[in-house]
Amino acid sequence: MSATIALQLDPFALAKELSGKQFIDGEFRPASSGKTFPVINPATGEEVAQAAFGEAADVEAAVAAAVKAQKEWAKRGARERGKLVAACGAALGERVEELGRLLALETGKALRTESRVEAGVLADMFTFFGGLAPELKGETVPFNPTMLTMTVREPIGVVGAIIPWNVPLLLMAMKIAPALVAGNAVVVKSAEEAPLTVLRVIQIMNSILPPGLVNILSGFGPECGAPLVAHPKVGKVTFTGSVETGKIVYRTAADKLIPVTLELGGKSPMIVMADADLDQAIGGAIAGMRFTRQGQSCTASSRIFVHDSIHDVFVETLKEKVNALKMGDPLDEATDIGTIVSPQQMDRVQSYIALGKETKGATAHALSAMPADPKLAKGLFVQPHLFTGVTNDDRIAREEIFGPVCCVIRWTDYEEVIAAANDSEYGLAATVWTRDLKVAMDAVHRLEAGFVQVNQNLVVQPNLSYGGVKTSGLGKEATLESMLEHFTHKKTIIINMK
Ligand code: NAI
Ligand code: MG
């Protein structure tokens, strides 16, 4: 029987309500040590809550609850599981405003342009995967006429999901919705910068799902994430974050011989051909670079290759358009661009801006305007920066910055631009802007990336396979195929009928 959770549209009050808690075995619990750490509003620097400091003992409790719940969950029919997961989607869909506001408060992502939108996609992801439950089918295999040979899809057991702070709702949903529908239980480790909204999501889901099936821990990587990955009863880990941490997760998983899914960021190229529709391409640059999210995106179009013949007009128009975006209080409806998530990330972004300014041949263009409101004086605001005169060999064009720093690279030769776009350790996303279908088709086949678009720059959507090649990761997410491949194993059964 689902308990009614009162809607709380005041994010400050909701942050206090959720303060100091994790969600284990169907109930809120403080960390077993009693320790907490502060959750800061990046727009003001003020503390809005404490988060429980989860450690190995909490991992132990959450995994034990998940193991128990999973056994019963797996016995239910797939369609019944799917219905319940879809019901979570419906319940979350009713809380978009509540979740969006809390997300804006803890991450600094503007409510209208980012946080509310993300809360909507979260709900959609559960609805989508809930509907895929009947597709957990096996096969019959024509092996021998006297033997009935078939395959069935079985759940793995307990899935550990480690998520980052930049798009915590969507990324969590992409992991736990398919895991649950496939018959697994989950233990999520939230990002230390954004522990509250995902906790609310799990609380809402728990009012529909059996206790222990969804658990969430908050805490830091080494103290809480590492013991979750290493836990002997965790049979699968799905991770989104940095390459460095992804490799640590992969090594631990290798010791246990368990499967992993890794989504690890990028340095995504956007190639603008001479014949591109300029307005469309500039709109795509703004959307693709995620200027409204302060560029804190793994798919950010952070290398924009613009054909020499339109380079200057492209840059001027892009500057005008980004200048027109309003930076300010993330909770204000008029705000287009919010803050950077944390002081650490702010330092990183500023050090790359400084590096860009020292880069030979590069020119910095600081855009938009810092907010004037004195209440935001301590906020983690940084002006979006465009760097022109950059080459693909410069560090700012090679390293993932994860901030509002965008390189514009001038090109003239088609073969050279394709080679430069592929000359990156990453391969997550890419876009091509042209009216010429032949050129578009040639480029999409040659670009080394998991997600390639022509004349648009959409974010990940349910049913579109998402994930990278090269160091951008391992495995794909957001589709039926990803649910089957990453959250089940195939069992072959042979019945001798002779
Ligand atoms: P991170 O990769 O360290 O953190 C992501 C998640 O992993 C967090 O929940 C963190 O607590 C956890 N974690 C950290 N160490 C761990 C360990 N040893 N074992 C298990 N879990 C662990 O990323 P961070 O420090 O937040 O950001 C650093 C950089 O990583 C960013 O500047 C950005 O370039 C990149 N990044 C990429 C993301 C993506 O979407 N691909 C998301 C976040 C960051
Ligand atoms: Mg880290």
From TrEMBL:
The keyword Glycosyltransferase does not apply. It comes from the Bacteria. Residues 31-493 form the Aldehyde dehydrogenase domain. Keywords: Oxidoreductase. PROSITE patterns: ALDEHYDE_DEHYDR_CYS, ALDEHYDE_DEHYDR_GLU. The active site is at 263. InterPro entries: Ald_DH/histidinol_DH, Ald_DH_C, Ald_DH_CS_CYS, Ald_DH_CS_GLU, Ald_DH_N, Aldehyde_DH_dom. Belongs to the aldehyde dehydrogenase family. This is Aldehyde dehydrogenase.
